[in-house]
Design goal:
InterPro entries: DNA/RNA_pol_sf, DUF5641, Integrase_cat-core, Retrotrans_Pao, RNaseH-like_sf, RNaseH_sf, RT_dom. This is Integrase catalytic domain-containing protein. One of its GO terms (cellular component) is DNA polymerase complex. The chain has six domains: 95 residues, no CATH class; 81 residues, no CATH class; 188 residues, Nucleotidyltransferase, domain 5; 88 residues, no CATH class; 237 residues, Ribonuclease H-like superfamily/Ribonuclease H (Nucleotidyltransferase, domain 5, 2-Layer Sandwich); 83 residues, no CATH class. Helix 2 crosses helix 3. The two termini are 72 Å apart. The strands form seven sheets. Strands 7-6-5-8-9 form a five-stranded mixed sheet. It has 32 helices and 25 strands. With 965 residues, it is of the alpha+beta class. The protein is 40% helix and 15% strand. Strand 14 and strand 15 form a beta hairpin.
């Protein structure tokens, strides 16, 4: 790179890199000069100081020589001693002599935000007054919030030497943020008084001259101390660092301010004074680390001073039951400092106090309490070994341990109600009514009644007062006065929270600014009830209700507005939003009311959410491994289910029979066994018959029928015994794995369900076409029908592609069972009268007549996958869902997901849900006042039977009254 673009963002970084690279490559000239060239410059200013004149001359000469090797040069050279640059002037080249910018002729230079006077070697404040309006700097014009911030940021004080003043300007800006002023809003008269005071102090600060050098005799000091002070107020924090030199007689030689830093406390942060003091102590440790790393001076001692007894007690003894806030800062302090390095001082000796309070200001000269704290004028033994008195420690600890009690507000209009604490509008009204009752009990009328009762009544004052007060309050209830007063108190509280600026403007008789959101609706303050209302075009003479003529203005995003809209929604029996909007417009003006009502109802009404909830169908899963298990015997993996019942003729009566259908999940072969009952014993016998005829399966899949569960338990017990016997003979037997699909998940065993559907269809058609004598067949005939259906299903084609080498044969399940696939009929005479045939021939003829229809229907069903194509958002553990039951959707129960099982494509298939029933305990008056928690039950359901609500458990708790889990 030969050319560097002027003004590029990366230019300072590149120039610093090049400068450091030059110093690294030419260390052989002078190692000290190279290290100084890397560490001492700040951007384009190179400032160094030294005690030895000869050393300084050689250092500047070698620095210039190193820079010239890289094509750079030092310009505007200036020192507080002319002999420093004498060596430079002797060795000037012809090119340097022509350079007019090589030496600076200014007596005062601007360096890093300060004025450096080379004559008296002092630093003064550099503030760019020319950037601001004269009327603003003279205090004749009220500044805006934007101008205050610009004024604050224009003052560059990297060392914080004038923190005692800049912290006051930060306080003013913090107050503008607390009053929620906009950027172009002008500050009020009270803040203007503080602003004028800061301008006066700023002019006085410009006369303060601070010595540039800490001390001329640092090397003569026996001990060099770095002392950090920290103090905290309710609105500002401040840390200050000083260097203190001590001679051999333990007497102070010199004390000088090194650096200071102030911080504004966040407006929304609610911390006690001890917590803020501990935060300042942590920041003092941080300031100590910065000062130590940026100085070549080696400090013999590090001292931290605090005036808070609670913080000193925590650091020396450790905090008891600390909060996470206290614990984090205490750990930081304890890891980087020692207990012996901390001291306690009285508040009068705390110099950092000047940076935390607006009224606290030192004298505008260098020898004030900020630059030279009075504590250093005392012997070291008088302030190093001080300890706070026990009563001060206990008092300071109580401030932290005691909970902050909010001040009591007697006026119900002051907005004392905590809207987050109550979950319904009725609760707001009840709490406010209770507060109004206490207000009326303490009113002048009740006190007057008390005085009259003591003088005239023969009844005891307590009983008479109770009677009079009850009558007084009962009259209030009869006229609904108390309910209306409670509503107005809540409305006033809402408006003061959201429209405080507009209310103050209207009270003062001023016009609202054009930037106000309420400008278009002509707001005004009602003198009767103190509410902020909107002026409409309806004349008062028409006799309409006051709320209709002048609606009450409410914010759209306030929590109480949400509760009010939900109350109207419940009163209208959860009908369409338009009805709620029409009723609200009779009394209130809510900005963007249509969108607000729709959003609030859809997001917060639990009853509507439950009634409108719909289950999501997950994307169709991948085929499991057992569907593609090649080179395995048929019926190694089976799915079983029961169809029926079917009535058979037995003697002169009728009995029910069921069919156990077993489907091979790999070859799609079918086997059926007759069940004489639905109990576990009959199911087990049928399963044993299937195993004897088709072989023992490795895995069985079924639904959660009670007969299957009982059969599984019996098989486990039997297999355990069989295994013990076989193991004794040296034979290893593999157990059968039985898997159960969740309840109401028929799609998970779709293979067997399709077979059952086909079987039912065949038998139904048979039932419709059979003669009257054959409507109720006997067991032998039913067995014959089942065998015919098994043969037909196992001879159905699995694919439309012909087998290799045979253009007339399609692959069927019989190829895997019998090594041949043709299904031979025992009779083909279709023209014989059915009445002359025997029973088995008539059944055979009817089954063959349905073959063509069965063949076409089966092929068309498995031809395409035309459903469950969309990918749905997976449900997670802890989500609140609705369990879909065959009832009205509004009666579906809520549940929490305890376990979610996913398929191969990351779609949730099976869920374990926790259900609980909450019963309401009512008092004698029938009012709901408590809930009794009963035991939770867990159920398993497929994902298709669950409707997500997109709510957390916290949202459910907020709507506890409207939900029954």
């Amino acid at each position: 790179m030969n050319v560097l673009i002027f003004g590029a963002v990366c230019a300072p970084t590149i120039s610093q890199y090049v400068k450091n690279q030059i110093a690294e490559e030419h260390k052989n000239i002078n190692l000290n000069a190279a290290e100084s060239l890397i560490k001492d410059p700040y951007v384009d200013d190179y400032i160094i100081s030294f005690n030895d004149l000869q050393y300084g001359q050689n250092l500047i000469r070698d620095v210039r020589a190193i820079l010239q090797k890289g094509g750079m040069n030092l310009v505007k050279l200036k020192g507080n001693n002319d002999s420093i640059l004498a060596e430079v002037r002797k060795n000037l080249t012809e090119k340097d002599k022509k350079n007019e910018k090589l030496f600076s002729t200014e007596k005062v230079e601007k360096i890093l935000g300060y004025f450096l006077d080379f004559e008296d070697d002092s630093i003064t404040l550099n503030f760019p007054d020319e950037k601001f309006d004269t009327t603003l700097m003279n205090g004749e014009k009220n500044p805006t919030k934007k101008e205050i911030l610009k004024f604050l940021m224009s003052h560059f004080d990297p060392l914080g030497l004038f923190t005692f003043l800049t912290s006051k300007i930060k306080l003013i800006y913090r107050w503008t943020c607390k009053e929620k002023l906009e950027w172009k809003d002008v500050i009020g008269n009270q803040l203007m008084t503080y602003w004028q005071q800061c301008l006066k102090w700023l002019k006085e600060c410009k006369n303060i001259k601070i010595p540039r050098c800490y001390a001329l005799n640092i090397t003569e000091a026996k001990k060099t101390q770095l002392i950090i002070f920290g103090d905290a107020g309710k609105e500002m924090l401040c840390t200050v660092g000083y260097i203190r030199l001590v001679d051999k007689n333990n007497m102070q030689i010199k004390t000088s301010l090194i650096a200071a830093k102030s911080y504004a406390v966040p407006i929304k942060q609610k911390r006690s004074i001890p917590e803020l003091e501990l935060d300042v102590a942590a920041k003092a440790v941080q300031l100590n680390r910065i000062i130590t790393s940026s100085h070549s001076i080696k400090f013999d001692e590090h001292i931290y001073a605090t005036d808070n007894a609670c913080v000193f007690h925590w650091i020396t003894n450790g905090p008891q039951k600390p909060s996470q806030y206290v614990k984090n800062r205490f750990n930081k302090i304890s890891t980087e400092t020692k207990i012996s390095e901390w001291i306690w001082i009285p508040t009068e000796w705390q110099p950092a106090d000047f940076g935390t309070k607006f009224d606290s200001l030192p004298q505008m000269k260098y020898e004030n309490n900020w630059f030279v704290p009075p504590i250093f004028s005392l012997p070291e033994e008088n302030w190093v070994q001080l300890k706070p008195p026990c009563d001060i420690v206990q008092k300071s600890l109580n401030v932290y341990l005691e909970k902050e009690v909010q001040p009591k507000i007697n006026d119900c209009q002051a907005g004392y109600l905590n809207f987050k604490r109550y979950s319904s509008w009725d609760k707001y009204i009840q709490v406010t009514q209770l507060a109004l009752k206490w207000k009326y009990l303490a009113s002048k009328k009740v006190r007057r009644l008390r005085e009259e009762i003591k003088k005239t009544s023969d009844v005891t004052p307590k009983e008479a007062l109770k009677i009079q007060i009850n009558e007084y309050l009962s009259n209030i209830h009869k006229t609904d006065f108390l309910y209306e007063e409670a509503e107005h108190a809540i409305f006033r509280a809402i408006q003061r929270q959201c429209f405080e600026k507009e209310i103050c403007t209207l009270k003062n008789g001023d016009k609202l600014p054009k930037s106000s959101k309420l400008m278009k609706i002509c707001p005004y303050l009602d003198k009767d009830d103190g509410l902020l209302r909107s002026k409409t075009r309806i004349p008062i003479s028409l006799g309409f209700n006051k709320d209709k003529i002048s609606p009450i203005i409410l914010p759209k995003n306030h929590l109480a507005t949400v509760r009010l809209i939900l109350k109207y929604h419940e009163n209208n029996k959860h009908v369409h939003e338009k009805t709620v909007i029409a009723n609200l417009l009779q009394r209130f003006y809510i900005p963007n009311i249509r969108w607000t009502v729709k959003k609030i109802i859809r997001e917060n009404c639990m009853r509507c959410k439950r009634s409108l909830a719909k289950p999501d169908q997950p994307q169709m899963g991948d085929l499991p491994s057992y569907r593609l298990a090649m080179h395995q015997p048929p019926f190694s993996f089976i799915c079983i289910d029961v169809c029926g019942p079917f009535e058979v003729k037995r003697n002169r009566g009728h009995e029910k029979r069921w069919i156990l259908v077993s489907t091979c999940l790999t070859t799609r072969a079918v086997h059926m066994e007759i069940l004489h009952s639905m109990n576990t014993e009959s199911c087990l016998k049928a399963l044993q018959n299937t195993i004897c005829l088709r072989g023992a399966p490795c895995r069985i899949i079924s639904d959660c029928g009670s007969n299957f569960i009982g059969c599984n338990n019996l098989l486990k017990e039997a297999q355990d015994k069989w295994n013990l016997e076989l193991l004794q003979k040296g034979v290893i037997t593999k157990k059968i794995i039985w898997e159960f699909n969740p309840a109401k998940a028929s799609h998970m065993s779709g293979s067997v369900e399709r077979m059952i559907g086909l079987i039912k269809q065949v038998l139904k058609n048979l039932h419709n076409t059979l003669s009257t004598k054959m409507l109720f067949p006997d067991d032998e005939t039913l067995r014959n029908i089942i065998c015919e259906v098994i043969g037909m299903l196992n001879n159905r084609p699995l694919s439309m592609e012909y087998m290799e080498g045979d253009e007339h044969t399609l692959l069927t399940p019989n190829h895997f069972l019998m090594l041949r696939g043709n299904f031979q009929s025992t009779s083909s005479d279709d023209h014989v009268n059915s009445c002359q045939l025997k029973n088995w021939l008539e059944v055979k003829k009817l089954i063959n007549s349905l073959w063509d229809h069965f063949h076409k229907a089966y092929i068309n069903e498995i031809k395409y996958k035309d459903k469950w194509l969309d990918f749905t958002t997976p449900l997670k553990v802890g989500d609140i869902v609705v369990v879909a039951d065959p009832t009205i959707s509004s009666l579906w129960r809520l549940a929490t997901i305890v376990k979610a099982e996913q398929g191969s494509n990351n779609q949730v298939r099976k869920l374990t849900l926790r259900l609980g029933k909450r019963s309401v305990i009512k008092n004698n008056k029938g009012i709901k006042n408590a809930y009794k928690e009963e035991k939770f039950t867990e159920i398993t359901r497929p994902a298709t039977q669950v409707a997500p609500l997109n709510l957390s458990s916290k949202a459910i708790a907020n709507n506890l009254e409207n939900i029954e889990i």
